[in-house]
Amino acid sequence: MAVSLTVNGRERMLDIDSDTPLLWVIRDELGLKGTKFGCGMGLCGACTVHLNGHPVRSCSTPVELADGGDVKTIEGLSQDGNLHPLQKAWVEHGVPQCGYCQSGQIMSAAHLLQHNDAPSRDDIVAALSGNLCRCGTYSRIVAAVESVVGDDAARPDREEA
Amino acid sequence: MSMNRRDFLKVTAGSSGGLVLSLSLPGCAGIQTGYDELDGSWTPDAWLELTTDDQVYFTLARVEMGQGTYTGLTTLIAEELGVTPASIKPRFAPAAPKYRNPLYNLQLTGGSTSLATSWQPLRVAGASARMMLIAAAASVWEISPTECRAVEGRVVHPNGRDNLAYGRLVELAAKQPVPKAPSLKPREEWKYIGKERGRLDAEAKSTGAPVYGIDVELDGMVYAVVSRPARYGARVKSYDDTAARQLPGVLDVFEIDRGVAVVADKYWRARKAQDALTIEWDNDGALDASSDQVFSSYHKAADEDPGESERSEGDFDDAQQGAERVLEASYEQPYLAHATLEPMNATAWYRDGAIDVWAPTQAPDLGRIAAARVTDLSPDEVTIHTTFLGGGFGRRLTNDYIEEAASVAYRIRKPVKLIWSREEDTRHDVYRPAMLHRMRASVSGDRLTGWHHQIVGPQILDWYVRNAAPAQYPWAPKFLYGTLGRVGLMAEGIATPKDHSAIEGAIEYPYRVPNLDIRHTHTDPGVPVSWWRSVGFSHNGFAVETFMDELAHEVDQDPYRFRRSLIDHEPRHLGVLDRVAQLAQWDSAALEGRARGVALFRSFGTYVAQVVEASVEFGEIRVHRVFCAVDCGQVVNPDIVRDQIEGGIIFGLTAALYGNITLEDGQVQQSNFHDYSLMRHDQRPEVVVDIIDSNESPTGVGEPGVPPVIPALGNALFALTGKRQRSLPLKATV
C-alpha cells in the first residue's frame, strides 16, 4: 500500500506491505538504523519511537496504523546539530555500555520530559520500566534523566504539544 | 604464549630502501609496516598508524560489546604515545593471527582478559612509537632525545618554545631504530590511566550512530531467515515451500545444514514466507531430554562416579570419620540463555571466489572457520568485518549465525543479511550449563575440618573444540577439521589447555581447611552449552558461598565473621570482605522487614565481596541495596570498573531471580522476554561499589561482579525466612 509518513520533520512516501512493522520501515526503507530490533513483541523497548507525540513500540506497530502520522526517531532528537539535553546527560553520566538499548531508553525519557515538568524518581522509573537494558545501566539512566529535569531545552516541542 | 619485546617488533630492510618495522609473533606472518609514501602514514606495529595529517589510528583487537575495550585499551596506547585518548580513532581489527589473544592463541574476546593481556604489549607499543617520534625530533634539532618531551601529540624542544607535531615526524620516525627496551611511564606521570573519564563511544551510542551487526547495509542486499528444528540435532526430513514461494518478494527457499532458509527482498517478507513453510523434521537421534531428566541423570552420575580429583589436600575421608558433625547439601542450577539485546545476525556476500562477513562476533577467526566449514572456501578466503556488539556475554564466541549466513550467501550470491528473531535467539542459544553440586563438610566443635565438593555436569570445550582446533591450526586442510576437533579433545591438557569451565571457582577454594577434596563428575546430557558471563564461576560461586553460609549457621557464627576467621591468610580476600562489611554497616541491624546476606568470591583474578539487602514484598523478592567492594589491581578507568561491576550485579540478580531455561521433550520452553525475564528499571536495587586502591597488575572486571551476588541474595533470603533455597532461580515463598 502507499503510505505517507513525516519522519523527523521530513515527508516520506512509500509503497510497502501494509502489515510491515514500522520498525523495519524506519530501518530498512528509510535507512535510520538508530532504532533497534530487540524482541518483536513490544517487550524490550529497544524500538521505541514517537508516533504523533506518543512513545510506541515500532516493532509491533504495523505501518498502516502509522499512515499519515508524525514519527520522531533518535536521529531526529537533536536539533540543529545540538545534542538533546538527554543525550548530553547520557555522555556526562557515562550511561551506555553496549549501547544497543539506549536509543529506546532516550526516546522513552524524552517523551516523559516533554509532558512532565518535574518528574519524581518514581515517575522516571515508571516511564522507563518498559525499556530493558541487558548491560544493567539502569542507575546511570535514571541519574542522567534526573540531571535534565527542569531543563527547558528538553521540551523543544512544548508549545506545539 | 608470552609476548616478549624481541618477538614483538623487528626491524628489517624494506624494499623501498627505508626501514620497515615488522611485527613478528611466534607462528605468525609479518605485518606490512613502515612508512607509506603514497598514504603519508606510518604503521609502527600491528596496532598503530600515524599519518602526516596528525591522525592516530588504533586497531582494536578486542571487540567492544559494552565492557569498554574501546575506551580502556585506547587509553593504554594514548598514555604511552603521549596523545589524548579522545584524539585516537579506534578501528576494529580484522581476523588475523597477529590479533590473537595470547592466552588462548585465538582471536577472541572473553574471560575478562582484554585489559590484563593488553596492559603490557599496548603500553610497550605506545612507548616505542613515542620514543621513535622523540628520536626523530631530536635528530632534526640535533640534540639528545633525552632532552625532549612528548606532550599531546607533539615533541617539545627543551627550550619550551619549539615543537613538532607527530604528523610532521612520522616519515622520519619510521627510520629510527626500534627501541630495545622502551621505558614505560612511571605511575606518577600517568595522565589518563586511573583517572575518571567517560567512554569514548558514549556520544555515538547516545545518538544511534554506531554500526552494530544488524545495522550493516550493502547495495542490493537481501534478507534471510532460517527455520531450525525445535529439538537440537534434528534434521530436515522434507519441506513444502509451495505457498512460501508464491508470496511477494520471496527469492529462494532451500535447505542448509541447520534448517531451511528463506530469502526475500525484505526482512518482513522473509518472515511471512517462513510462516508459510511446512517442514517435517527427522527427530532420529535428536535431543529428547527434559529438565527433570537432566537433573536425575546428574544425580545418577554423581552416585555412580565420584569423578576426577581436581584438587586434594589432607584426607577428607579421615576428617569425615573423625568429625563430630558432617553437613551435606546439594545445589541445582538451571540452563541459562545469554539474551543479548541485539539478536544473533550476520551479513555475508560471496563473490569472486571469496566471502566477506560482517558480524558482531567475539571470535573473528572462529567465524572464518564457521564460514569455511559450510562452503568450499578455505579460511583464507573468508574475511570477517567486526562491528559493534549489542551485548556479548559469551554468546558470540559461538559463530553458528555466521555459519548460517555464509551458507545462504554462498548459494544466493548476493549480499544477504540474516537476522534471528528473539524467539529463535532464546530457543537456539548455546546455554550456561545446568549443574549439580554436592557438598559435604566436616565440623568439630566450631572448627571446619574438611571440605568436599563434587561438581556434576558438562565441559564447555567439548562443544567448542570443533571450531577452535582448526582455528589454531589454520594450515590444516578442511577434511581434518573433524579430526582436529577430536584430537583437541583427547589431548586436552597437552595440545590444548585444560578445560576449567566446570571447576573454576571451586578448585580455588580459598578458606583455611586442612582436608579438602574437589571432584568433577563429567556428564553431558547433550544440550548445547557455552560460556556465559562468568562461566563456571557463576555456578560454583553459588555452591561454595551458599554452603559457607550454611556452615556459619551450623556452627552458630555470624556469616561475615565465620568467613573472616578462615581467610585471614589471604590479604586481598580479607581486604574486600572487611571493606564491604563497613560499607553495608554489617554490624548495625537491618531495616525492619529486610535482611542481609554476604558472599566473597574471586574470579578472573579479581576479588569481590558483596552484601545484598532484600525483603519479600507482596509475594515477590525485592532487592533493595547491594554493597560491593572490588579489588582488580591497578585501575585504568574507575568509571568503567564501577559500571561493569554494577552491570554484573544486575546480570547476576537477573539469573538469581528469573533465569530458567527449561526443556520438555528436548525443546526449550522459553521464547521471549515475557517468559525469560530480565531485571527492569523498577526492580533495580541501589548499588554501591567501592574500589580498593592497588598497584597490582590489572585484572578483568566484566565478569567478576556476577558470581557473588547470587549466593549473597540467597543468603539474605535465608536470614529473612530461615529457609534455605538450594536451587535457582530463588523463590519468594518455599
From TrEMBL, chain A:
Signal sequence bounds: none
Domain 2Fe-2S ferredoxin-type: 1-77
Keywords per UniProt: 2Fe-2S, Iron, Iron-sulfur, Metal-binding, Oxidoreductase
InterPro entries for the chain: 2Fe-2S-bd, 2Fe-2S-bd_dom_sf, 2Fe-2S_ferredoxin-like_sf, 2Fe-2S_ferredoxin-type, 2Fe2S_fd_BS, Beta-grasp_dom_sf, Diverse_Oxidoreductases
Any GO MF annotation of the entry: oxidoreductase activity
Keyword Iron in annotation: yes
PROSITE patterns xref list: 2FE2S_FER_1, 2FE2S_FER_2
Protein name: Isoquinoline 1-oxidoreductase, alpha subunit
Species annotation: Marinobacter algicola DG893
TrEMBL record, chain B:
GO MF, one example: oxidoreductase activity
Segments for region (Disordered): 297-321
Aldehyde oxidase/xanthine dehydrogenase a/b hammerhead domain location: 207-285
Record-linked SMART domains: Ald_Xan_dh_C
Pfam families attached to this UniProt entry: MoCoBD_1, MoCoBD_2
Compositional bias segments (type: Basic and acidic residues): 300-314
PANTHER family: ALDEHYDE DEHYDROGENASE (PTHR47495)
Record-given protein name: Aerobic-type carbon monoxide dehydrogenase large subunit CoxL/CutL-like protein
